[in-house]
Amino acid sequence: MFKIRTGLIVAAAAIGFAASGFAASAQELVVGAAGNPGGLAVFVAQDKGFFAKNGVDVKVEIRNTGSELSKGLRAGEFDFAPAAFTNLPAALERGLNVRGIVGYVGAAFEKTTADEVVALIASKDSGINSVADLKGKKVGVTFGSTGDLWLLQALKEVGLGRNDIDRINTRPPSLVSVIDTGGVDAIVAWEPFNFRTLKKVAGSKIIKRGGDLVCFCAYLHGNPDTVYGDEEKTQKFVDAISEAAAYVRNPANREEVAEIGTRFVNMTKEEVLAGLDFWVYDPRIGENTAKAFRKSVNLLIEQKKMKTQYDPARYLDSKFIRSTMKRHPEWFADLGKGS
Asked: Against a cut of 0.70, is the pTM above it?
Protein backbone atom coordinates (compact mmCIF):
# COMPACT_ATOMS: atom_id res chain seq x y z
CA MET A 1 0.00 0.00 0.00
CA PHE A 2 1.38 3.38 -0.99
CA LYS A 3 2.43 5.63 1.86
CA ILE A 4 2.29 9.42 1.96
CA ARG A 5 2.90 12.22 4.51
CA THR A 6 2.09 15.96 5.45
CA GLY A 7 1.68 18.57 8.27
CA LEU A 8 -0.60 20.74 10.43
CA ILE A 9 -0.64 22.93 13.57
CA VAL A 10 -3.39 23.95 16.02
CA ALA A 11 -4.00 26.97 18.32
CA ALA A 12 -7.07 28.18 20.17
CA ALA A 13 -9.35 28.19 23.16
CA ALA A 14 -9.46 25.23 25.51
CA ILE A 15 -12.67 23.27 25.87
CA GLY A 16 -13.45 21.53 29.14
CA PHE A 17 -14.65 17.97 28.87
CA ALA A 18 -13.86 16.80 32.39
CA ALA A 19 -17.52 16.25 33.14
CA SER A 20 -17.85 13.83 30.26
CA GLY A 21 -14.75 11.90 31.24
CA PHE A 22 -12.73 12.86 28.16
CA ALA A 23 -10.14 14.99 29.93
CA ALA A 24 -8.94 12.24 32.23
CA SER A 25 -7.81 10.05 29.33
CA ALA A 26 -6.79 12.77 26.88
CA GLN A 27 -3.17 13.31 25.80
CA GLU A 28 -1.98 16.81 25.02
CA LEU A 29 -0.77 17.91 21.60
CA VAL A 30 0.03 21.34 20.22
CA VAL A 31 -1.14 21.82 16.65
CA GLY A 32 -0.45 24.73 14.33
CA ALA A 33 -2.94 26.15 11.84
CA ALA A 34 -2.96 28.97 9.32
CA GLY A 35 -4.97 32.10 10.04
CA ASN A 36 -7.46 31.60 7.21
CA PRO A 37 -10.43 29.33 6.41
CA GLY A 38 -8.01 26.58 5.41
CA GLY A 39 -7.73 25.74 9.11
CA LEU A 40 -11.43 25.16 9.66
CA ALA A 41 -11.10 21.41 10.25
CA VAL A 42 -8.69 22.15 13.10
CA PHE A 43 -10.86 24.95 14.49
CA VAL A 44 -14.00 22.81 14.37
CA ALA A 45 -12.22 19.83 15.93
CA GLN A 46 -11.31 22.09 18.84
CA ASP A 47 -14.58 23.98 19.17
CA LYS A 48 -16.93 21.01 18.72
CA GLY A 49 -14.89 18.72 20.95
CA PHE A 50 -13.81 16.22 18.30
CA PHE A 51 -10.27 16.19 19.65
CA ALA A 52 -11.49 15.41 23.16
CA LYS A 53 -14.05 12.92 21.88
CA ASN A 54 -11.28 10.98 20.15
CA GLY A 55 -9.01 11.06 23.19
CA VAL A 56 -6.54 13.87 22.54
CA ASP A 57 -6.22 17.17 24.37
CA VAL A 58 -5.14 19.73 21.78
CA LYS A 59 -3.93 23.29 22.04
CA VAL A 60 -4.18 25.24 18.78
CA GLU A 61 -1.56 27.79 17.69
CA ILE A 62 -2.24 30.09 14.73
CA ARG A 63 0.29 31.62 12.34
CA ASN A 64 -0.12 33.83 9.25
CA THR A 65 2.07 31.93 6.79
CA GLY A 66 3.26 28.45 5.96
CA SER A 67 6.86 29.45 6.59
CA GLU A 68 5.93 30.57 10.10
CA LEU A 69 4.26 27.23 10.71
CA SER A 70 7.30 25.32 9.45
CA LYS A 71 9.66 27.41 11.59
CA GLY A 72 7.44 26.78 14.61
CA LEU A 73 7.48 23.03 14.00
CA ARG A 74 11.27 22.98 13.70
CA ALA A 75 11.56 25.03 16.88
CA GLY A 76 9.41 22.56 18.79
CA GLU A 77 6.47 24.91 19.21
CA PHE A 78 4.06 22.39 17.63
CA ASP A 79 3.65 18.64 17.47
CA PHE A 80 1.84 18.82 14.14
CA ALA A 81 1.56 21.56 11.53
CA PRO A 82 0.47 21.91 7.89
CA ALA A 83 2.64 22.71 4.89
CA ALA A 84 1.79 23.20 1.23
CA PHE A 85 3.11 20.94 -1.51
CA THR A 86 4.20 23.99 -3.46
CA ASN A 87 7.01 24.78 -1.02
CA LEU A 88 7.39 21.80 1.35
CA PRO A 89 9.45 19.58 -1.01
CA ALA A 90 12.27 22.14 -1.11
CA ALA A 91 12.47 22.07 2.69
CA LEU A 92 12.49 18.26 2.64
CA GLU A 93 15.38 18.28 0.20
CA ARG A 94 17.28 20.59 2.57
CA GLY A 95 16.85 18.13 5.42
CA LEU A 96 13.46 18.77 7.02
CA ASN A 97 12.46 15.41 8.50
CA VAL A 98 8.68 15.12 8.84
CA ARG A 99 5.92 12.66 7.96
CA GLY A 100 2.59 13.77 6.50
CA ILE A 101 -0.25 11.78 7.99
CA VAL A 102 -3.58 13.48 7.20
CA GLY A 103 -4.93 16.03 4.76
CA TYR A 104 -5.34 19.59 5.98
CA VAL A 105 -6.76 21.27 2.90
CA GLY A 106 -6.96 20.52 -0.81
CA ALA A 107 -8.33 17.98 -3.25
CA ALA A 108 -5.13 16.04 -3.95
CA PHE A 109 -6.75 12.66 -3.25
CA GLU A 110 -9.09 13.16 -6.21
CA LYS A 111 -7.00 15.26 -8.61
CA THR A 112 -3.43 16.44 -8.95
CA THR A 113 -4.24 20.13 -9.45
CA ALA A 114 -6.86 22.21 -7.64
CA ASP A 115 -6.46 25.95 -7.10
CA GLU A 116 -9.85 27.68 -7.26
CA VAL A 117 -9.06 29.31 -3.93
CA VAL A 118 -6.33 31.41 -5.62
CA ALA A 119 -7.05 34.49 -7.73
CA LEU A 120 -5.37 37.41 -9.47
CA ILE A 121 -7.13 40.67 -8.60
CA ALA A 122 -6.41 43.99 -10.29
CA SER A 123 -7.23 47.52 -9.19
CA LYS A 124 -9.70 49.66 -11.10
CA ASP A 125 -7.16 51.95 -12.75
CA SER A 126 -4.42 49.38 -13.34
CA GLY A 127 -5.24 48.79 -17.00
CA ILE A 128 -5.07 45.06 -16.34
CA ASN A 129 -7.76 43.00 -18.06
CA SER A 130 -5.84 39.77 -18.62
CA VAL A 131 -2.77 38.01 -17.30
CA ALA A 132 -0.85 39.22 -20.34
CA ASP A 133 -1.49 42.81 -19.19
CA LEU A 134 0.68 42.20 -16.13
CA LYS A 135 3.83 42.98 -18.12
CA GLY A 136 5.61 45.86 -16.46
CA LYS A 137 3.12 45.99 -13.58
CA LYS A 138 3.60 45.72 -9.82
CA VAL A 139 2.02 42.59 -8.32
CA GLY A 140 1.73 41.95 -4.60
CA VAL A 141 2.27 38.29 -3.69
CA THR A 142 3.67 36.35 -0.76
CA PHE A 143 7.03 34.99 -1.90
CA GLY A 144 7.35 31.23 -1.58
CA SER A 145 3.61 30.73 -1.14
CA THR A 146 1.29 28.62 -3.28
CA GLY A 147 -0.03 31.91 -4.68
CA ASP A 148 3.48 32.80 -5.80
CA LEU A 149 3.94 29.52 -7.65
CA TRP A 150 0.46 29.90 -9.17
CA LEU A 151 1.38 33.39 -10.43
CA LEU A 152 4.53 32.14 -12.11
CA GLN A 153 2.57 29.40 -13.85
CA ALA A 154 -0.11 31.88 -14.94
CA LEU A 155 2.60 34.09 -16.44
CA LYS A 156 4.12 31.11 -18.22
CA GLU A 157 0.75 30.36 -19.86
CA VAL A 158 0.85 33.71 -21.64
CA GLY A 159 4.54 33.70 -22.47
CA LEU A 160 5.72 35.91 -19.63
CA GLY A 161 8.31 35.28 -16.93
CA ARG A 162 9.03 36.59 -13.44
CA ASN A 163 11.30 39.31 -14.86
CA ASP A 164 8.42 40.73 -16.92
CA ILE A 165 6.64 41.96 -13.79
CA ASP A 166 7.65 43.63 -10.54
CA ARG A 167 6.78 41.11 -7.81
CA ILE A 168 6.33 42.79 -4.43
CA ASN A 169 6.73 40.47 -1.45
CA THR A 170 3.63 41.03 0.70
CA ARG A 171 2.52 39.21 3.84
CA PRO A 172 -1.03 37.82 3.53
CA PRO A 173 -2.62 40.24 6.04
CA SER A 174 -1.24 43.18 4.02
CA LEU A 175 -2.42 42.09 0.57
CA VAL A 176 -5.67 44.05 0.76
CA SER A 177 -4.08 47.26 2.00
CA VAL A 178 -1.23 47.22 -0.52
CA ILE A 179 -3.63 47.24 -3.46
CA ASP A 180 -6.04 49.60 -1.72
CA THR A 181 -3.32 52.23 -1.20
CA GLY A 182 -1.99 51.91 -4.74
CA GLY A 183 1.27 50.25 -3.75
CA VAL A 184 0.69 47.61 -6.42
CA ASP A 185 -1.43 47.26 -9.53
CA ALA A 186 -2.65 43.77 -8.67
CA ILE A 187 -2.37 41.04 -6.06
CA VAL A 188 -2.41 37.26 -6.04
CA ALA A 189 -4.23 36.01 -2.97
CA TRP A 190 -6.50 33.33 -1.58
CA GLU A 191 -9.60 33.37 0.60
CA PRO A 192 -10.55 35.32 2.64
CA PHE A 193 -8.25 37.96 1.11
CA ASN A 194 -9.82 37.72 -2.35
CA PHE A 195 -13.31 38.28 -0.96
CA ARG A 196 -12.06 41.02 1.36
CA THR A 197 -10.32 42.86 -1.50
CA LEU A 198 -13.35 42.81 -3.74
CA LYS A 199 -15.49 44.19 -0.91
CA LYS A 200 -13.10 46.90 0.25
CA VAL A 201 -11.26 48.10 -2.86
CA ALA A 202 -13.70 49.91 -5.13
CA GLY A 203 -13.55 48.78 -8.73
CA SER A 204 -11.19 45.88 -8.07
CA LYS A 205 -11.87 42.80 -10.16
CA ILE A 206 -10.81 39.20 -10.56
CA ILE A 207 -8.66 38.72 -13.67
CA LYS A 208 -8.10 35.00 -13.24
CA ARG A 209 -9.15 32.42 -10.65
CA GLY A 210 -7.73 28.92 -10.42
CA GLY A 211 -7.16 27.18 -13.72
CA ASP A 212 -5.60 23.93 -12.45
CA LEU A 213 -2.12 25.42 -12.54
CA VAL A 214 -0.98 24.04 -9.17
CA CYS A 215 -2.29 21.96 -6.28
CA PHE A 216 -3.30 24.23 -3.42
CA CYS A 217 -3.01 21.37 -0.97
CA ALA A 218 -1.44 20.93 2.43
CA TYR A 219 -1.11 18.03 4.81
CA LEU A 220 -0.57 17.86 8.55
CA HIS A 221 2.80 16.49 9.54
CA GLY A 222 5.10 15.95 12.49
CA ASN A 223 8.62 14.73 13.04
CA PRO A 224 9.05 10.91 13.13
CA ASP A 225 9.48 10.83 16.90
CA THR A 226 6.10 12.53 17.31
CA VAL A 227 4.31 10.49 14.65
CA TYR A 228 5.64 7.07 15.62
CA GLY A 229 6.59 7.60 19.28
CA ASP A 230 2.96 7.08 20.29
CA GLU A 231 1.06 5.75 17.30
CA GLU A 232 -2.15 5.37 19.29
CA LYS A 233 -2.14 9.10 20.01
CA THR A 234 -1.32 9.88 16.39
CA GLN A 235 -4.25 7.72 15.27
CA LYS A 236 -6.61 9.54 17.61
CA PHE A 237 -5.43 12.85 16.19
CA VAL A 238 -6.04 11.68 12.61
CA ASP A 239 -9.48 10.39 13.61
CA ALA A 240 -10.39 13.76 15.12
CA ILE A 241 -9.26 15.74 12.07
CA SER A 242 -11.21 13.41 9.77
CA GLU A 243 -14.41 13.70 11.79
CA ALA A 244 -14.08 17.48 11.93
CA ALA A 245 -13.44 17.72 8.19
CA ALA A 246 -16.63 15.77 7.53
CA TYR A 247 -18.50 18.21 9.76
CA VAL A 248 -17.04 21.18 7.87
CA ARG A 249 -18.04 19.71 4.48
CA ASN A 250 -21.66 19.10 5.52
CA PRO A 251 -23.75 21.89 3.92
CA ALA A 252 -26.13 21.76 6.88
CA ASN A 253 -23.34 23.02 9.13
CA ARG A 254 -22.19 26.00 7.04
CA GLU A 255 -23.58 28.71 9.31
CA GLU A 256 -22.21 27.13 12.47
CA VAL A 257 -18.83 26.39 10.88
CA ALA A 258 -18.57 30.02 9.77
CA GLU A 259 -19.32 31.20 13.29
CA ILE A 260 -16.60 28.92 14.66
CA GLY A 261 -14.11 30.29 12.15
CA THR A 262 -14.66 33.85 13.36
CA ARG A 263 -13.74 32.81 16.90
CA PHE A 264 -10.31 31.57 15.85
CA VAL A 265 -9.05 34.07 13.30
CA ASN A 266 -9.70 37.64 12.23
CA MET A 267 -12.47 36.97 9.70
CA THR A 268 -16.09 37.95 9.43
CA LYS A 269 -18.75 35.29 9.09
CA GLU A 270 -19.38 36.50 5.54
CA GLU A 271 -15.71 35.95 4.69
CA VAL A 272 -15.67 32.44 6.09
CA LEU A 273 -18.84 31.51 4.20
CA ALA A 274 -17.36 32.83 0.96
CA GLY A 275 -14.23 30.78 1.53
CA LEU A 276 -16.22 27.58 1.99
CA ASP A 277 -17.10 27.76 -1.69
CA PHE A 278 -13.43 27.34 -2.66
CA TRP A 279 -11.54 25.51 0.08
CA VAL A 280 -11.56 21.69 -0.01
CA TYR A 281 -11.34 19.66 3.20
CA ASP A 282 -10.33 16.12 2.28
CA PRO A 283 -8.10 14.30 4.80
CA ARG A 284 -7.36 11.30 2.57
CA ILE A 285 -3.99 10.25 1.16
CA GLY A 286 -3.67 8.19 -2.02
CA GLU A 287 -1.99 7.75 -5.39
CA ASN A 288 -3.16 11.12 -6.70
CA THR A 289 -1.70 12.73 -3.60
CA ALA A 290 1.68 11.32 -4.57
CA LYS A 291 1.22 12.54 -8.15
CA ALA A 292 0.35 16.05 -6.92
CA PHE A 293 3.49 16.01 -4.78
CA ARG A 294 5.63 14.96 -7.76
CA LYS A 295 4.13 17.71 -9.92
CA SER A 296 5.05 20.28 -7.31
CA VAL A 297 8.58 18.89 -7.15
CA ASN A 298 8.89 19.20 -10.93
CA LEU A 299 7.78 22.84 -10.79
CA LEU A 300 10.25 23.59 -8.00
CA ILE A 301 13.07 21.97 -9.98
CA GLU A 302 12.04 23.99 -13.04
CA GLN A 303 12.28 27.16 -10.96
CA LYS A 304 15.65 26.03 -9.54
CA LYS A 305 14.28 25.86 -6.01
CA MET A 306 15.11 22.14 -5.88
CA LYS A 307 17.94 20.15 -7.44
CA THR A 308 16.60 16.60 -7.68
CA GLN A 309 13.46 14.49 -7.41
CA TYR A 310 12.08 13.63 -3.97
CA ASP A 311 10.11 10.43 -3.47
CA PRO A 312 6.70 11.31 -1.93
CA ALA A 313 6.75 7.98 -0.06
CA ARG A 314 9.52 9.44 2.08
CA TYR A 315 7.06 12.04 3.29
CA LEU A 316 3.52 10.66 3.06
CA ASP A 317 2.37 7.87 5.35
CA SER A 318 -1.20 6.79 4.67
CA LYS A 319 -1.55 4.07 7.29
CA PHE A 320 -3.26 6.25 9.88
CA ILE A 321 -5.86 7.73 7.54
CA ARG A 322 -6.47 4.30 5.99
CA SER A 323 -7.29 2.99 9.45
CA THR A 324 -9.69 5.89 9.99
CA MET A 325 -11.38 5.28 6.63
CA LYS A 326 -11.83 1.59 7.41
CA ARG A 327 -13.36 2.21 10.85
CA HIS A 328 -15.42 5.30 9.96
CA PRO A 329 -16.53 5.16 6.31
CA GLU A 330 -19.39 7.51 7.18
CA TRP A 331 -16.92 10.40 7.52
CA PHE A 332 -15.92 10.02 3.86
CA ALA A 333 -19.19 9.00 2.19
CA ASP A 334 -19.72 12.44 0.59
CA LEU A 335 -16.30 12.50 -1.10
CA GLY A 336 -15.48 11.38 -4.63
CA LYS A 337 -13.17 8.55 -5.49
CA GLY A 338 -9.49 9.01 -6.14
CA SER A 339 -6.96 6.65 -7.64
From this structure: yes
